From TrEMBL:
Residues 114-454 form the Peptidase A1 domain. Gene3D superfamilies: Acid Proteases. It comes from Rhodamnia argentea. This is Aspartyl protease family protein 1-like isoform X2. GO terms for biological process: proteolysis. Belongs to the peptidase A1 family. GO terms for molecular function: aspartic-type endopeptidase activity.
Amino acid sequence: MATPPPAPDRAAFLTALVSLALVLASESRVCCGFATFGFDVHHLFSDPVKGVLAVDRLPEKGSLEYYKVMAMRDRAIHGRRLAAASSSSSGNQTVLTFSSGNETILSPYLGYLHYANVSVGTPSLSYLVALDTGSDLFWLPCDCKSCVNGLKTSSGQTIDFNIYSPNASSTSAEVPCNSTMCGQRSQCSSALSSCDYQVVYLSNGTSSTGILVEDVLHLTTDDNQSKAVNAKITFGCGQIQTGSFLDGAAPNGLFGLGMTNMSVPSILAEEGLTSNSFSMCFGPDGIGRISFGDKGSSDQGETPFNLRQSHPTYNITLTQINVGGTAQDVEFSAIFDSGTSFTYLNDPAYTFIGETFNSLAQEKRHSSDSSIPFEYCYDLSPNQSSFETATLNMTLKGGDQFYVTNPIEVISDQASSIYCLALVKSGDVNIIGQNFMTGYRIVFDRERMVLGWKSSNCYSATDSSTLPISPTNSSPPAIAVNPQDTSGSGNNSVAGNSSSSMSIHSHLIPFICTFVMILFPILAIV
C-alpha cells in the first residue's frame, strides 16, 4: 500500500529541512577512484538550525543552560557506552552525499548528537535518523507495533514521521536466516525464515526489535555530475521500540557508524562503493560534515586503534599531555566519540590538566557552583574584552600531537561572564568528546585501523588551514570574550575559535533542561 501524501505541516517541516540543506551545502569537487559519501553536520543549538526550524526556546550557545543540558545528555549516554564495552589520499576520491539532503541537526538526549535526513526505498522516503559512532545497526521504525509516529508543535499541530514498510517499497526484501548478515542464525526456525534482531541499550530499558531487511539507500556523487548511486544495504525494520526511543531519542531511526559488518560504512565498503573509512568534522558554530570513504590525507596526524575483539570501538592511547608547556608522560586509553559533547578523563590525567591550567590562569577562580558541569572556572571582569589561557596538547601513540583548539568555554549572562576548562572528571571510561575535536577533520580509517586528524574549516570536502592546529611554542593565545564566528570571514586567529560567548536569556532553566532532553522545546512526541 502506497504511503499517502504528506500533510501540510509535515510537508512544511520537510521543506524547511531541505531548504537548510541547500543553503548550507558544501562545494563539490571532481576526482576519481573510490567514492566518498558525505553530508553536512549541524548542531541542534546552532543558529542555522534554529533559524530554519524557528526554535526560539533552545538555550543559546555560551549560556549556562546550554552547558547544563549538554552535560546532562553526556551523563545519559555513559551507561550505554560502558554496557556495550563490557559485553591513501583523499585527492583520489569523489565526494558523495545523501540524495535527500545534507542537513543534519543535533539532539542532546542519550548521546545521539547528530541527525541526518536520509532517503530509503522505492519510491524513496526521507527519515530523520540519529548518527551514532557507538552502535552498528542502522534501523528505521517499520510496520510499527510500538514506535513514535510524529511530533506535535506547541500550537497543537502534528508533524507525521515517515514509517518504513517493506510492502510499500518495490526494492525491499527480507534478509533470510542463512544470510551472513543475520546475527541470530542459531535461533532461526528454518534457513529461509526472516532474520530477527534485537538491539538492547542498557539505559532506561531502551531497545529496538524487529527483522532485518534489504533496501536501497539513495546517494549522489558530490560533483558536477551529481550521479545517483543506489546502495543496497541491510538494516533493521524496527517494529518495536522501547524506553528512550519512545521519549525522544532517535524517534525516526538510528544510523550506526560502528566497526562491525552491520554498520553502513562497512556495507558501503563491502559493496565496493567506498573505502572502508569515513571522516567527521565539526566547526565551532555546529556546522560540519561526515564523509563516507574518506581516508584522509598523507599529511594528517595518525594513531592506531586499540581493538577489542568482543566489541571494537574507536579507542586510542595517549602517551603525553602538555598544558602551557608543562608536560607529563601518561599511558591510558580513550574513546574518540563524536557522540559526546565534552571530554571526560580519569585521574591522574584529569587532575594534572586541571591543576596545571589553574596555576596558569590569571583570573580569579569562580566559586564552586554545582549548577556548572565544569570544576575549573574563572571570573571575567565586566570590562574585560579578552583573556589568555594555557594551551593543551596531547601526544598520541606513535608520536603525533593533537593540539586542542577549543579547551575552554565562555558562559555569559547579562550581568557577568566566566570561562571554564571544558573538561569533566570521569569515574570510568575516558572519552575525547566533540569539544576537543573542534577544528579538525577526524578520520576513522577501518582499513588501516588508524585514527587520523587534520585541520579543517568543516565547510567543504577539501581541507583548510583556517585553524593553526600545531603551534610551535607554548605561549597562551589571547581569547576574545565575545569572538565572532569564522565562517566565511577569513579570520584565522586562534582567538576567534578557542571560545565563544553569547547572551543568555535566563528563562525557565528547569523547563529547558527537562524538555530539551525529550527532543525540542517546541515539539512533543505523539
